[in-house]
Model the fold of this input.
Amino acid sequence: MFRSRMHLAARRMLSTATETATAAASESTFRATPLPPPKKPLGAVRGGLMGLLLGFVIAGGVSYYNLQGDYSVYSNALLTNVEQLGGSVEAIRASLAKADSLEAEVKAVKGSAIKRDDLEKARKDLYKAIDNLTVEHLELKTRVWALEQELKKRQ
Done:
């Protein structure tokens, strides 16, 4: 047992000496080349900002595209409604012109229409004329009868 312990101790020394020699050799090699400057851990921040900006640009582009599509749809709908409104306005103007012309005709008829008093006077004049015609008709009938009687006497 003692022997195996010794053997282990010797082995440890040997390995330690070998490691020390290797470390010294690598240390001299390591010092011969200059050390590169240490890297700053900004890649994650820079990448995060670039991703954020890229996300904003893409979201803005998609939003602009959708907004432009909605704008064209609503613009066309508004244009259609304005055209329909123009047609309605023209129909209303035509109706107003017709109403104005009818109103002018009514005024003309009222101006030329006879009033009730004038109608009564015309009726009385008509009755007088009819009475005069009846009287004249009867007088003519009487004359014709008288002439017939005279002709009968002569025959």
Summary: The chain has a mean pLDDT of 83.
